[in-house]
Amino acid sequence: MSTRLFRARPARVVPAVILAILILAIAGALGWAAIAAIVSEGSGSAALSSGFSGFAALGTMTWAAAAIITAGAVITVLGLIFLIIGISPGAKRNIGYRAQAPEHAERFEVVLPTSALSNLAAAAADSVDGVSSVRAASNASSTNVTFSTPVRDTDEIRRDVDAAVTQRFASIAFDRTPTVKVRSQRRPA
Amino acid sequence: MASSPGGLTIADRVIEKTASQILKGLPGVGGAKSGLFGFGSNADLDSRPSVDVTLSGRSCTLEVELGLAYPSPITEATESVRRRLSADVEALTGVSVRQVDVDVKWLKPNASGTGRSVRNLQ
Amino acid sequence: MKRLAAGANRTGLIIVGLIFLVAGLAVLALSFGLAAAVAPGLTPDAKLQPVAAVFALPFSAVIALAAALILAIIGVRWLAAQVPRKDSAKPLRMQEDARSGVTTVTANVIAAAVEDDLEDTPEVVDAQAILRGTARRPELVLHVDVDERADVDAVVADIADRVTRNASHALGVPLSAVGVEIGIARSRQRRQRSVRL
């Protein structure tokens, strides 16, 4: 099996759920109109338009009507968005780790999700004196650390935080050690 | 057997108890008395494994639910259970064992013997 | 480490996206008079009466009901596919000779043993394991949450040397693949309550 053990790219669950609910909503509306038509006519040969008067109103509109243009534009944009979400691979969510396969395993794969990288960086920054709170955001190749401090001169603390996080990352055998960017945010004491 | 005077009848429960007792004596084999969620507090290497006997004629098949010490090799451990069970049940009851189906319900580190014990430090 | 319907989601998004895009562009082409060259009469000031007439056809309600049912089935099935799947191995058969009896071990039994074993690794706070594959080619997928100050390399080394060796020993075959996902436990929420000596 050559497929990867961990999914590296997003599975697009949220857009899929939104689209599935949209499909269900269309199905519900269509089904409602159809049942209303059959009930009001009282026969199986009922036309759909007898259940919902909107279809008759549709017939009096021209193609150049503002509502039709708007609907066309909305559908086009939605289609484009779905297509892009479906095709674009999305951000990588795992960082590779250098690991040798032990003799009792043919393949050995270790990954750290970007969330783990952020937590590592935040924990390392937290241990620096003068830091009161830390936020960290990561992608597969870099981490942005933002810390807040009551101290006025933040330069020295920034260097310390940078050193602490860089050293923490260096202690771990990543495939490619992520780069670190540190920003300070002064918090009035 | 009923035709011969003074014949001996062995109930299936006797074979079950016998097999269960044999298993209890084996090292690294434990019972599978299921707790609330299948296995839990009752699963340990000191409890008695459950055995189900199906008699057919003068032979029987056994269905055993047990737990094993981890990380002992499962195949070897269950093969040795199977051999011991067949030989000993036949020797003790005279009923030949055709098949022993083993269902391994849990695998746990061997707590007895190595002197490991869980101590609550609170 | 559980599996998601990534392929189905992307395929679905692309298909629906294409349908929407084509339909939307067609409507816009009609609205701006671009279609008049291809189909005479379809000018921007033409009425949508031919479209409305379709809905006035006899039996169109029944057809719409059938279409609604099909759409509803697609929607529900797509939603149901979002539930993450463990895809554990089928119960493993581990006997030497089936004529003298079969040995059955479920994937969850082995996964539970591996989880217990992982939690014996120093600095591992929590662990989950899934056994996939077959008895002859087993695959282990592991997730461990380690303490924020843990020596990650030491944890990985212990998993590689001890945990996977134990699993391979118990199964009696080399593992065909081992995947480890490492999470970092930020706050020490789960305190160990007892120690095994």
What is the overall shape of chain C? elongated
CATH class of the largest domain in chain A: Alpha Beta
Main beta-sheet annotation of chain C: 3 strands, mixed
The CATH class designation of the largest domain in chain C is Alpha Beta
First-last Cα distance of chain A: 57 Å
**CATH fold-level name of the largest domain in chain C:** GMP Synthetase, Chain A, domain 3
Largest interface: A-C, 91 and 90 residues
How would you describe the shape of chain A? elongated
CATH superfamily (homologous) name of the largest domain in chain C: ANL, C-terminal domain
Q: What's the arrangement of strands in the largest beta sheet of chain C?
A: 3-4-5
Q: Count the E strands of chain C.
A: 6
What order do the strands of the largest sheet of chain A run in, or round the barrel if closed? 3-4-5
Query: If helices are DSSP runs of H or I spanning 4 or more residues, what is the number of helices of chain C?
Result: 5
Estimated radius of gyration of chain A: 28 Å
The strand count of chain A comes to 5
Q: What does the main sheet of chain A amount to?
A: 3 strands, mixed
List the helices and strands and how they pair.
The complex is a heterotrimer of chains A (189), B (122) and C (197).
Chain A: H1 13-41, H2 54-59, H3 66-87, E1 94-97, E2 108-113, H4 114-126, E3 133-138, E4 142-149, H5 155-170, E5 179-186
Parallel strand pairs in A: 4-5
Antiparallel strand pairs in A: 1-2, 3-4
Helix pairs in contact in A: 4-5
Chain B: H1 12-25, E1 29-30, E2 50-56, E3 59-70, H2 74-93, E4 96-109, E5 118-120
Parallel strand pairs in B: 3-4
Antiparallel strand pairs in B: 1-3, 2-3
Helix pairs in contact in B: 1-2
Chain C: H1 6-31, H2 49-55, H3 60-80, E1 92-93, E2 103-105, H4 107-119, E3 124-133, E4 138-147, H5 152-171, E5 177-185, E6 194-196
Parallel strand pairs in C: 4-5
Antiparallel strand pairs in C: 1-2, 3-4
Helix pairs in contact in C: 4-5
